[in-house]
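Batch 3, record 17
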Amino acid sequence: MTKRDLINKVQEKYKIYSNKDIACAVNVIFASMTEAMKNGERTEIRGFGNFTIRERKPRLGRNPKSGLQVKLSERKTPFFKTGKELRNKVDYKNGL
Amino acid sequence: MTKIDIIQNVYEKLGFSKKDSADIVESVFDIIKDSLSQGDKVKISGFGNFMVKEKRARRGRNPQTGQEISITARRVLTFKSSQVLRKTLNG
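Prediction for the assembled complex:
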């Protein structure tokens, strides 16, 4: 499923809104989460999961193709921890 | 940030009613959850991909007691952030 499919599915449920309006709403949702992460804030979605920021230390890496050493500076990466409800839903035991 | 803050943002930026904003945000996460529960992956461009991965059964150890236990085959959800998102965070 892509963002497009997601928008279409939401719009099927809320026909009073145009596809464009729903697309804007979906974009606002992900932009809000991005903004929060940018500010170093964690995002908690009950039943879904948490998004947090992990700091990566600077290190010396290697270009796997050329084998040349490259300096990797300190950086931030998003980390997602699946919520309990979703974790159970995705696993075999419950469902499928 | 919680769901309430996201709903507030949708309400302020799009002028939908409070109730509709809440319903739409709720349904976005529900649809994503349903799709993942069926083993389908969800790709959100500019944000990242949610993918279901199959894990084989393996022998594990209780790190506290050192006792060996068997871990059954399972399906887990992984999130791979988009390059765009990582750039935003480090830009």
